[in-house]
Design a protein that fits this description.
8-stranded mixed β-sheet; flat; 5-stranded mixed beta barrel; 16 strands; alpha+beta; 2 domains; OB fold (Dihydrolipoamide Acetyltransferase, E2P)
């Protein structure tokens, strides 16, 4: 046995050395991998970095502001018009009057940030709820997404009061006149259909009614069952309105509607229904949709 070890000591030394090096490499990679994984988790975690009290430095539109430090704040419980819709400038200007260059207080509900990494907050100036004030003045609508419903009762009541009193831009009769013409339409018009034309972000006020909804398709999704969802004005899940083409009806429409209608300004005709808190129209026939020229 001694002779065996003496004769093979060089070979054994090589084997033992290889095992030691292999073990070192294995544990080094394992520890390094764990460190890298921790780093990735840390880098991918999304949280709002804005303090509870902060200076408002910029107003993007009627429901989004920027605060000192660069964080974007999306006001909870409301929805204001986007560019191209009648109350956009009214809501933006009023929000500037209320908060721009002033120290505001940000109040969190349940959700910290949205999919765009904007902080989701109620905004207060002293004790004044700015979200509520915009709804009271008819410059924004009340809109809620579970679980963020802390001021739902107050905002809902304020909206009803504004509607009943025909207060502000949203309810004074101006809301259905687009400030920017999205395109020329020949078939889906008031004259030819007798139907009211509403902006996509106002469609939620017309549940159960036949109407023509106008807006820009900014996001399209095709499900595993080949159902096509055309989302208007904002990407899912913040879209204002959806039109749906089920797979059984797609043979009637243009080939690959998910590509054809992308980023186009369109009008949709039909009965506005509510699905999971959002307005939608089911498209059964191509005559229900027209692309702006």
């Amino acid at each position: 046995m001694i002779n065996f070890f003496e004769k093979n000591r060089i070979f054994l030394a090589i084997v033992i050395g290889a095992l030691v090096i292999g073990a070192a490499v294995y544990f080094g990679l394992k520890n390094g991998g764990e460190k890298n994984n921790n780093t990735l988790v840390s880098e991918s975690s999304d949280q709002c970095l804005a303090p509870a009290e902060v200076l408002a430095t910029k107003v993007i539109d009627g429901d989004t502001i920027v605060v000192e430090g660069g964080e974007h704040i999306r006001l909870l419980g409301i929805d204001a018009d986007e560019v191209g819709y009648p109350c956009y400038q009214n809501a933006k200007s009023r929000l500037e009057e209320l908060v721009l260059n002033k120290k505001i207080r940000l109040e969190k509900d349940k959700t910290d940030v949205d999919q765009y990494k904007r902080c989701l907050r109620y905004v207060f100036l002293d004790e004044q709820n700015i979200d509520l004030q915009l709804v009271k003045e008819g410059l924004a609508i009340a809109r809620f997404y579970e679980p963020d419903i802390k001021y739902k009762d107050e905002l809902t009541l304020a909206e009803k009061t504004a509607i009943d009193g025909k207060i502000g831009c949203k309810w004074s009769g101006q809301k259905n006149t687009p400030s920017i013409i999205l395109g020329k339409f020949e078939e889906l018009t008031l004259e030819k259909t007798g139907l009211e034309i509403v902006g996509a972000c106002n469609a939620g006020n017309y549940y159960g009614k036949e109407a023509i909804v106008e807006g820009k398709i900014v996001n399209i999704y095709k499900s595993g069952t080949n159902t096509v969802f055309l989302n208007f004005d904002k990407p899912y899940p913040n879209h204002c309105f959806t039109s749906v083409i089920f797979s059984s009806d797609q043979y009637k429409f243009v080939q690959n509607p998910e590509n054809y209608y992308s980023d186009k300004n369109v009008r949709i005709k039909g009965k506005i229904q509510e699905y999971q808190g959002k307005p939608e129209i089911i498209l059964k026939d191509p005559s229900q949709i027209e692309t702006g020229k």
